[in-house]
């Protein structure tokens, strides 16, 4: 269950800096990484099963599958001012697999299946901040079976069931004999919906919605006070994988070039607090340090994405993207497990048509977080070590995705 404590960020292997605001990971294919996830109204191929199941009904005849591997490289976050400065987090290198499949057309229907990492977090501090986040790791894996229905040549609908497995670990050690070691897992469920409309031969409009899923992690906890083991037993925590609405428009500038704009609204306001529950009473001091609910009161956020796809020739397709991503974390509630800030995201990639059946590709994404400066007296509801102010900086993340799509 402790794993969910670090849920201040979420994703199967994913990252403390996260690839998106807080702990979302929207890039789960070659196309989505290359386009900074500006990939909804122009979704095509096997990964349309995840990004827009309503659009997959317009795929080329036959079935298709895509297998990808992403390496997430997270630089250290530096705590350059504040009561616990100087300190820094450890560099993380995390492999993230994904898989997508779309069936052949069955009348006006098509079926899909995706296995992705939708959210996650890993944060490990080297110095005094380890007293709050020695390790916060949250891993998730989502299975998303989908269905699309073609109403006519211009309008289609789709949807699916979301099944998320969560596994996590939380460790804290203040160096004075007070520490915790938690782990747990869960299966939780939700849904997604999609609409796709070809307004003209050049313009496609789309909307997708992913429901909120409460990750109900349950597991075991060991708590120490004064160096003595005080509690061994069950523990639980609940954290939301927030709902998200995407509105998108893709326009064919010509027969080889498409530009897409995506507006994403993520409903982080569902994250009110982080509350660990135990099966029995624990030492009052431990309860004050590790048992008191942590106030979050996060805010809903906007993300603005733009992607450009250009078919250079019959063999090569080039892509590039940019996104501006708002953080949901108010400075009043920033904590060491996720010192998040607004981000600018840059990406590019290419695909090569090896044969009529096989396409291979690679893409690279760079996520630059803004410096996070917390003035003195602002962080009144989180850790009191931040009450005097603090600065977190140099948070960066790189995603490198390689993969293959096969049609049959």
Automatic annotation (TrEMBL):
Residues 1-20 form the signal peptide. Its main location: membrane. It is a multi-pass membrane protein. It comes from the Bacteria. Keywords: Cell outer membrane, Membrane, Signal, Transmembrane, Transmembrane beta strand. GO terms for cellular component: cell outer membrane. GO terms for molecular function: long-chain fatty acid transporting porin activity. It is found in: Cell outer membrane. The keyword Signal applies. InterPro entries: OMPP1/FadL/TodX. SUPFAM superfamilies: Porins. Pfam families: Toluene_X. Belongs to the OmpP1/FadL family. This is Aromatic hydrocarbon degradation protein. It comes from Sedimenticola thiotaurini.
């Amino acid at each position: 269950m402790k794993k969910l404590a670090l849920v201040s960020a979420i994703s199967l292997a994913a990252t403390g800096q996260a690839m998106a605001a807080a702990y979302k990971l929207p890039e789960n294919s070659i196309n989505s990484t290359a386009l900074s996830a500006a990939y909804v109204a122009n979704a095509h191929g096997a990964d349309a099963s995840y990004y827009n199941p309503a659009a997959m009904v317009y795929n080329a005849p036959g079935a298709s599958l895509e297998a990808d591997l992403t390496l997430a490289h997270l630089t250290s976050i530096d705590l350059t001012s504040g009561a616990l400065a100087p300190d820094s987090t450890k560099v993380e290198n995390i492999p993230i697999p994904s898989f997508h499949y779309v069936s052949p057309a069955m009348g006006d229907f098509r079926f899909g299946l995706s296995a992705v990492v939708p959210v996650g977090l890993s944060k490990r501090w080297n110095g005094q901040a380890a007293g709050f986040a020695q390790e916060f790791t949250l891993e998730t894996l989502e299975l998303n079976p989908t269905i699309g229905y073609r109403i006519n040549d211009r309008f289609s609908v789709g949807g699916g069931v979301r099944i998320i497995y969560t596994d996590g670990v939380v460790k804290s050690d203040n160096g004075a004999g007070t520490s915790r070691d938690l782990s747990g897992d869960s299966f939780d469920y939700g849904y997604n919906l999609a609409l796709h409309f070809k307004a003209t031969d050049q313009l496609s409009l789309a909307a997708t919605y992913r429901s909120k899923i409460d990750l109900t992690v349950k597991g075991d906890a060991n708590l120490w006070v004064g160096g003595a083991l005080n509690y061994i037993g069950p523990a639980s925590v609940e954290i939301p994988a927030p709902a998200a609405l995407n509105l998108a428009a893709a326009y064919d500038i010509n027969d080889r070039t498409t530009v897409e704009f995506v507006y994403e609204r993520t409903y982080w306001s569902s994250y009110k607090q982080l509350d660990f529950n135990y099966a029995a009473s624990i030492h009052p001091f431990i309860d004050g340090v590790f048992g008191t609910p942590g106030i979050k009161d996060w805010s809903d956020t906007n993300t603005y994405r733009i992607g450009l796809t250009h078919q250079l020739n019959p063999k090569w397709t080039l892509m590039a993207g940019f996104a501006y991503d708002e953080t949901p974390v108010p400075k009043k509630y920033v904590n060491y497990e996720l010192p998040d800030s607004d981000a600018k995201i840059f990406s590019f990639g290419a695909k090569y048509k090896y044969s009529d059946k096989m396409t291979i590709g690679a893409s690279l994404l760079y996520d630059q977080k803004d410096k996070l400066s917390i003035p003195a007296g602002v962080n009144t509801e989180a850790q009191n070590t931040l009450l005097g102010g603090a600065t977190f900086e140099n948070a960066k993340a790189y995603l490198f995705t390689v993969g293959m799509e096969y049609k049959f």
